[in-house]
Amino acid sequence: MTKKHNVVKPRRKYDEDFKNEAVRLVTTGQRSVPDVARSLGISENILYRWKGHTNKSVESPTGISQQDYDQLREQLRRTEQERDILKKALAIFSRLT
């Protein structure tokens, strides 16, 4: 009877650039998660985990962080409100003359 020796693989570390590039390939729709994982020699689960983390904290494929995006949405909302107020004021003053 032979004994099985459990071989423990050392845990690999990936730098942020590598992770971001892998996630970018998936999020831009260029390639699927299984395809990217296979080509990079990593687990699909790791890539899905990285993708989940980047949705919360890292910039999107457009280069705008979620915080900047939210800030721009709020600025757009305020600008639209101001525009609507000015339209109403113009209509009121146009009637008076």
TrEMBL record:
GO terms for molecular function: DNA binding; transposase activity. One of its GO terms (biological process) is DNA transposition. The keyword Coiled coil applies. Residues 62-89 form a coiled coil. Keywords: Coiled coil. InterPro entries: Homeodomain-like_sf, RD_transcriptional_regulator, Transposase_8. This is Transposase. The lineage of its organism: Bacteria, Pseudomonadati, Bacteroidota, Cytophagia, Cytophagales.
